[in-house]
Amino acid sequence: MSHPSAPPPYSDKDPLYPPPPGGYPQPGGYYPQPGGYPQPGGYPQPGGYSQPGGYPQPGGYPEPGRSTQPVPPMPPMPTVPLNIGGPEGYGPQIEAGEFGSWDDKAVRHAFIRRVYLIISLQLLVTVGIIAIFTFVEPIYTFVRRNPVVYYVSYPVFLVTYLVLACCEGPRRRFPWNVILLALLTLAMGFMTGTIASMYSSKAVIICIGITALVTIAVSIFCFQTKVDFTSCAGLFAVLGIVLFIVGIVTAIVLAFKYIYWLHMLYAAIGAVVFTLFLAYDTQLVLGNRRQTISPEEYVYGALKIYTDIVYIFLNLLQIVGSRT
Q1: Is the pTM of this model over 0.70?
Q2: I need a surface site. Which of 128, 174, 256, 309 has the fewest CB within 10 A?
Q3: Compositional bias of type Low complexity: which residue ranges (predicted)?
Q4: CB distance 79 to 100 below 8 Å
Q5: Cβ neighbour number for residue 19 with a 10 Å cutoff
């Protein structure tokens, strides 16, 4: 068998896939020639890339966890009335934190109105009892002959005062705060009326007028002055302790021998000290000072100012009554 002297033509290499029209590309067509690669100058120049300044600045990125969408405005917080559940000054207590900020003028003004409304009712009851004990002859004759009224009312006053002053629960919980405050007012009124019945009606009227003037003057002074009595809480605590000790010593001395000048001196010191206490407690109620009373403590604020006013009256009565 004879062999062909030459290989078959390129067109017959694969008869199943005929060559494309125009023939296969030549070997030089698959890869570019050495001169066909792009020269280094064809790449972008270093200045052609975006500079670092083109990226967002550090402050331009949103903070972690914060949405870039605009935040809708918050709706206004509704105001909680201070006389929920009853007339002004009474009603179920509101939980702490529902009164709003103490710096809110509306809250503070409502608190002041409530405190002074309670004080007005207390003083009205006390003055009424004093008037009965002083001007109704059968009653003041009975009280003078039977001082047991004073000795019975004093323990009631002392117990209710300590409960309201030291126990936060009863003085904030309705109706216990109202009941205790009413008992304290009646007991204080009976004590004051019993003492007033021992003096002349002229002295009682004069002392009521002086006490009213002192109270009004101190209140106006506390509204206008820039002096902050609440920043001297330690000094007032010392004054209270000294007055208490001096009172005990004076009572012991006077029990054995009555000394007129000692009695008058103690009464004068007591009137001055309780006037300062009235200024201190008034500023606690008014606020805008270093120390303030919480808006929930309207019973405590009324209790403090009421007892200060009554003690001023009693000390003035000892001074004026001894000269009439």
Answers
A1: no
A2: 256
A3: 44-65
A4: yes
A5: 12
